[in-house]
Amino acid sequence: MKIFLLVLALALSALALAAEPPPPPGSEITPPRLSFIDGAVSFWRPGAEDWAPARVNLPLAPGDALYTGARSNLEIQTGPRAFVRAAENTQLGIVALEPDFLQVKVTGGQASLDLRSIPAGHTVELDTPSAVFTIEHPGYYRVVVTDEVVHFVTRRGGRAAISVADAPPQIISSSEEIVVRGTAAPSVETYVAPELDAWDRWNYARTDHEIEALSTRYVSPGVYGVGVLDQYGAWRIVPTYGAVWVPDRVAVGWAPYTTGSWIWDPYYGWTWVDIAPWGWAPFHYGRWVLVSGFWAWAPGPVILRPVYAPALVAFFSFSSSVSVSVGITGPAIGWVALAWGEPLHPWWGRPGFIGVPTWRGWAGPRIVDVKVHQHAKTPRALVAVSEKQFGSGPVRPVRFSPAAPHDLKHIGDAHPVRPSPPSLVPERRETVRPPAKLLSRPVVSTRPPREAALPFKPDPARKPALAAPAPRVVPPPKQADASAAPPRPSFGDKGAERARPAQPPRLEDLRRAPPAAAAPPKAPAAREPRALPGRPANGVFPRSKAGSGGRRS
Q1: Co-location of 15 and 147 in the same domain
Q2: Does 133 share its domain with 18?
Q3: Is the pLDDT of residue 536 over 80?
Q4: Is 507 part of any domain?
Q5: Are 332 and 259 in the same domain?
């Protein structure tokens, strides 16, 4: 009998997968993730009222801009092994995002692109006020933009093409520094790459830390935000779900999708931005499950192409009696995390995709007929806010006991809340603003930017906080140019190259080095996950038990 039921479940899953509509164009693009912030970093999205504080785990879209204040820096994850980082006093923006093309601009400051891997056929374009750099090879790239000079450095086998106005593209080999002087009629000089400094070493260390995480063993390749999971939780193996991750720094009574903001993404619509530093992968992939009464994130079976979702929740509207009973005035909207195998009803995309149940990117068991969502019956997991409060800053949800099925109306095709300017940023308050000269600097580009489509009619009396001037468009480098590098330009008037580097140390010399000169000891190796029959290996669960008492988070 058990074998029959298993075969029947697999057959139903296969039929459900075959019946799924094709994904809408662009639906399998993972947006760049703002993965790290140190200091004051501000964010602006076209249509927003003003610059707002940026938040870790913010998904970025074309037209978005970021600015780092003094003694601040940021990191953007653009691929499983690809990162863009900006130093202090730097303005950086996302110009275009396509399945095989990422366009970034830097109008001032310093940034690095640590691209440990680039899929075949993918291109990264870096626009600056003096030149545009086209990257199609893995490597480490650094750019420094001042008033009249742009420095561009390649390392680790990196190779790029540079294009300036009224000049043919030129190839930049690895371990070179390109200096572009001027903007109207720029001159190009080439030098050997300078020695590594603290900024370069920090970039190397950050990437090494992210891509060597233990959690990558249990999560599908292509999922962003995996490295941070090692620091804030532990993995366990359970018979029902396989590998699950349990957060260990959450408040009593915490539940998924209760501490964060709903913001409006130009393509994906309503998107969840959690305040937890680990709050990317567990809220855009997999499912949340209960293990012995405690919340755990189950990424599901490892698959080749996981699919990003803006949030994995079910939305509900309520009868007026429910709204009044939970203390909400006016229309209310609620949501709950999807459980193991439950389908997602997309609220974004083209007609025929919106509202149709989908398990796209989910290779595990499937629940085809969902009468009542499993977590809607879990105490404190179903939350609600008034429609006026939804999408206007950090949520302050009201938690309540499970309602009767007839009191909950699933929202499958039409979200009742329409976005407004406050919906474009995670929160609104004073923040650092970029200098006016950076806001007004045009860049060189191989394609003009597309005008952002706003989900509302902008106020004509309000001046935009960022009105970027049109770029100077130059032809993109041809594919054939990559196989034959043109003659190198002059070494310029700097004189001699940098001093000859020392020979690398011998292994025996390092072994004989005194303890003070030796490398710092490594952290203890992470423990392998153990079976979880009822309690964790250490006998103590984190304070995340569903339905437990304590103050509201």
Answers
A1: no
A2: no
A3: no
A4: no
A5: yes
Cα separation, 310 vs 313, whole angstroms: 9
322-328: long-range contacts, CB 8 A cutoff, minimum separation 24: 322/400, 322/403, 322/407, 322/408, 323/384, 325/400, 326/384, 326/398, 326/400, 327/398, 328/384, 328/385, 328/386, 328/398
HSE (CB half, 13 Å, CA atoms) of 198? 1
Check: CB of residue 272 under 8 Å from CB of residue 310: yes
At 493 the three-state DSSP class reads: coil
**Same-domain status, 18 and 47:** no
Domain total of the chain = 2
Dist CA 356 CA 84 (whole Å): 35
Tens of pLDDT, residue by residue over 209-263, are 999 999 999 999 999 999 999 999 999 999 999 999 999 989 988 999 999 999 9
Give the DSSP H/E element, type plus range, for residue 284: helix 281-284
Q: Is 181 found in the same domain as 240?
A: no
- The HSE-up count of residue 81 (CA atoms within 13 Å, CB side) is 15
Give the pLDDT confidence score for residue 319 in this predicted structure.
63
Q: Are strands 82-86 and 58-59 parallel, antiparallel or unpaired?
A: unpaired
Higher pLDDT, 477 or 68: 68
What distances in angstroms separate CA 140 from CA 156, 173, 464, one per listed residue? 6, 12, 35
DSSP 12: H
Judged on CB neighbours under 10 Å (0-12, 13-18, 19+), 476 is middle
Query: How would you classify the pairing of strands 101-115 and 123-127?
Result: parallel
- Provide the terminal-to-terminal Cα distance of the chain, rounded to the nearest Å: 45
Sorted by sequence, the CB contacts under 8 Å of residue 179 that are 6+ apart come out as 149, 150, 151, 188, 189, 190, 191, 492
Whether residues 39 and 14 fall in one domain: no
Residue 37 and residue 12 share a domain: no
Q: Per the domain annotation, does 429 fall within a domain?
A: no
277-288 per-position pLDDT tens digit: 999 999 999 999
Q: What distance in Å separates the CA atoms of residue 305 and residue 285, rounded to the nearest whole number?
A: 11
- Look-up of token digits 């710092």: 520
| Residues 337 and 287: beta-carbon distance below 8 Å | yes
Range of the domain at 13: 2-22+225-424
| Residue among 245, 241, 345 nearest 300 (CA) | 241
- The answer to whether position 433 is within a domain reads no
Place of tokens 């490892």: 302
Distance CA 210, CA 216 (A): 9
Domain of residue 104, CATH code: 2.60.120.1440
Of residues 70, 71, 143, 68, the one with CA closest to residue 104:
143
Same domain, 39 and 82: yes
Pick from 227, 202, 250: nearest CA to 80 = 227
Q: Which residues of 492-523 are buried (b: 16+ CB within 10 A; e: fewer)?
A: eeeeeeeeeeeeeeeeeeeeeeeeeeeeeeee
Residues 125-143: pLDDT tens digits? 999 999 999 999 999 999 9
The closest of 228, 241, 240, 144 to 194, measured between CA atoms, is 144
